[in-house]
Records
---
Amino acid sequence: QKEVEQNSGPLSVPEGAIASLNCTYSDRGSQSFFWYRQYSGKSPELIMSIYSNGDKEDGRFTAQLNKASQYVSLLIRDSQPSDSATYLCAVRQGGSYIPTFGRGTSLIVHP
Amino acid sequence: DAGITQSPRHKVTETGTPVTLRCHQTENHRYMYWYRQDPGHGLRLIHYSYGVKDTDKGEVSDGYSVSRSKTEDFLLTLESATSSQTSVYFCAISETSGTEPTGELFFGEGSRLTVL
C-alpha cells in the first residue's frame, strides 16, 4: 500500500522564521510530488509541484526532493501569520491517475 | 480558477436516505475525483473518472457510487446514508499533460454532509 507520511504537528514558528515541513513516501516508483495548503474550513490549494531531484523555488516557497531517501520537503521563508494553515503532501506514481495524500502538517506562525 | 462548483455545499440528512452530491466543471477536464476528508484521516479517494462513463474505485468506495454521463458533471451518490459517511466531500480535477493527468489537482469548495 502506498503511504505518504507527515508529522501532524502543530509546527509553531515565529513570524519571519523559516518553516520546514517534511514528507516521506513509501513507493519508489513515485514520480510527481505536490504541496497543498489548506486553510481551516477551506479546500486544498496547490502551491508547489516538483518532479525531479533537487530544489524548486517559487517566491518564499522552496520544495526539495530527494528520491533516494524518499522524502520531499517544503520550506517557507519569512513566515507570515497568513501562512498558518495545514500543508498537505501528495505523491503520484508514474502511470497512475491518482495522487495519494498525507494527513497534513498544521503550521502556526505566531507574531 | 478551475471553474469547479459543488452542490449542495451543506446538507443534513437522516440515516438510510439517498444523497447525491454534484460536481460541475466548465473547462472540459477529463480527470475528476471525489475525496472525503475526515479528522485524523486526511484526504481519501472515493472514486475517480477518466472520461465520460469511465470511472473506477478509490480506497474508500464502499457505500458510494458515481456517474459521469457528460464531461462537465461528476455525481457522487450515497445510496443509503450512514452516520460514518458524515464528512466533508471534495471534488477535484487534474490538469493534463497531453492526455495524461499531471496529478496537479484543483478542488471545489467542498460539500459538508451530516448524517443523523
---
Amino acid sequence: QSALTQPPSVSGSPGQSVTISCSGTSSDVGTYNRVSWYQQPPGTAPKLMIYEVSNRPSGVPDRFSGSKSGNTASLTISGLQAEDEADYYCTSYTRSTTLVFGGGTKLTVL
Amino acid sequence: QVQLVESGGGVVQPGRSLRLSCAASGFTFSSYGMHWVRQAPGKGLEWVAVVSYDGSNKYYGDSVEGRFTISRDNSKNTVFLQMNSLRPEDAAVYYCAKDTYTWAIIWYFDLWGRGTLVTVSS
C-alpha cells in the first residue's frame, strides 16, 4: 500500500488561508469516507483535527475544514495563526482493511 | 487521568526481537480498538497494526505483516506489540493510539501516547 501524496510544504501569512491536498486512489480515498487529518507540532504526538472527511472533533477550531473530491481529500485552514505551524498528515482506510498515511506536509506561518 | 504510556523500546540488533507495551488509564480500555503507529526519525507517520476491543480481529501494515504481532490484555489495560526479525528500517518512535468509538474499529485516533523509541543497529 503506497502512501497518500501530500505536498511536502505549504506556507501562508497570518490571517490567510491555505489548503493541503491528499491524493490517493480508488482503493482508498476515492472509495471510502474514512479520511482524517492530524496535526503534529514538533516533538509532540499527533492530534486529530478532521475525521470522516469533514467532521471536527470537539475543541478543534472551525477554521479547520475538510473536503473530498474523487481520489483527493483536502484540508483548509482559514485565518492562519502562528500556533497552526506544524506537520499535517492525512489518512485513509483502504480496501485491504488497513490504514494509509500521507507523507506529511509542513505548514509554515510566515 | 486519560492517558497511554508506552514502554519497552531500546537498542536491538538486526534479526532480534523486542516487545513493546502500552498501558492505558482513565477510560474503559476493553471497549476500544487499539493501534500502533510508528515514525522513523525525521520521517512521516506509518500505521503498523490494530487490534479490536476484544482481541478477536487484528490487521497489519504490509511492511510488518508476518513479523509483528499485536495483542492485548484487557485485565491489565495493556496492548502489546511483539516485533520479530527486526530490520534497520523498523527503527522509529512507536506510538500506541486509541480508536475513537466503542466496539468497532473506526480508524481514527483520539488519544495518543508519547511514544517509545526503537533503534535497530548492530
---
Amino acid sequence: SSELTQDPAVSVALGQTVRITCQGDSLRSYYASWYQQKPRQAPVLVIYGKDNRPSGIPDRFSGSTSGHTASLTITGAQAEDEADYYCNSRDSGGKHLSVFGGGTKLTVL
Amino acid sequence: QVQLQQWGAGLLKPSDTLSLTCAVYGGSFRDYYWSWIRQPPGKGLEWIGEINHSGDNNYNPSLKSRVTISINTSKNQFSLRLSSVTAADTAVYYCARGHDYGGSTDAFDMWGQGTMVTVS
C-alpha cells in the first residue's frame, strides 16, 4: 500500500505564512485532504480536493498539489492554528484503501 | 446538522474482542462511506476500514484478518469489531463519514467524538 510522508514538526511566526507538505505516490492519482487536530479533540477537515474549504474554515487555509507533493498553506498564521495536521488520500493500488500521513505538529511562535 | 455519536466498551483484556457502534443523526446514510479510524496515544491517525450502505467493505491490510465492519441501515448505525486485541490496539477510535466528491477527491468530513479503548 502507499505511504504519505510529512515533516514531524514545523514552526511559524505569528502572522506569517507556513506551508506543510505531504509526499506520496498516491498523490499523483488522488487529491489529498487535510485535517487539523487540537489536543483531546477529534480531527477537523480543513482542505479537500484541488483547493476546497468546508464551511466555517477560514480562507487563510489553502491547498495545492504538484506531482507527488500536496501542500497545505496557512497565510497569516494565528495562534489558534497551532495544532497537528494530517494529510490523507486514497491508496493508488486500486483497492479503494485510505492512508494518512504521519502528521505535522505546527507551532505558532 | 449531521452528528456521529459513538459508544462501546473502553477497557478490554488481551484476546478480547473490541466492539464499537456509531449512530448517524441527520443527513443521508446512503451516499457516503462509513469509516473507522484510530489513534494510539501520542501517535498519528490510522485508517481501519470502511463500509457503504450496500455493505461493501474495504479494510486496512494490516488489520484485515481481525476486523469486521458492519452496517444497520434501518437504524443508521455502523459497527466495528476487532478480535484478539493486544496492548498495541490501545487507542482512541473514531467513526467518520467518508465523502466521495468525485474527480479523485474524497475526505472524511464528519467525525464522531472518539472513544478511548484501553487493552490491559
---
Amino acid sequence: GAVVSQHPSRVICKSGTSVKIECRSLDFQATTMFWYRQFPKKSLMLMATSNEGSKATYEQGVEKDKFLINHASLTLSTLTVTSAHPEDSSFYICSAIRGGGEKLFFGSGTQLSVL
Amino acid sequence: DQQVKQNSPSLSVQEGRISILNCDYTNSMFDYFLWYKKYPAEGPTFLISISSIKDKNEDGRFTVFLNKSAKHLSLHIVPSQPGDSAVYFCAASNTGNQFYFGTGTSLTVIP
C-alpha cells in the first residue's frame, strides 16, 4: 500500500526558531499534498494544499509567511514553521494523493512543542 | 462553515456489540466519502470508503452506509473490539480535489 513518511515525529524548540517538517511519499508520486493541523479534541484543520511545482494554496486564516510550504518534487513537500511561538504548538499532519487516486494517505504526524 | 459534521464527540460500546458512528454533510456535490481511524499521536489511517453511486460498502467488520437524500452516512463496526477504540473521522470529497473532515468521534470499546 501507499506509504507517506513524515519527519520528525516530535520536535521541541525555543520560541523564535524555525522548524522544518518533511513529508515524503515513499512508493508513489504525489501531485498534491495537504498539510493539516490538529488541535486537541478538534478536527483536522486543513492549512494548505501543496501542488508540485507551484505555490501552495492556503486556507483562510493561515499565515503563508509563517507556514512556508515547498513542494519541490513529486515525492517531497516541506512545511516550515517560521519564528515559532508557543501558540504554534500542535500536531501537524501531512497527507498525499496518489496520481489519479481518490484516497488520502497520511503521514504519522509531527508533534511540535514550542517553549 | 462546517460542511461535514459528526455530532457525537464520543461513543462507548461494549465489546462484541455494534458501534454506529454518524456523519452528516451539507454539500450535495460531494461524491466520495471516507472514514479514517486515528490513534493518539499518530496520523489517520484509511478505513473504508464509499462512492455516491452506492448506498453500502462492506469490508469485514466495517460497513459504511450512505443516504444521499438525507446527506448522511454512517459507519457500523460489528462486532466491536477493544482495539477499535480510537477517534474516527469521516471525510467527504468532490472529485478528489478537496477533502473535508468532520470533527471526529472518539469511540471507546469496553472489554
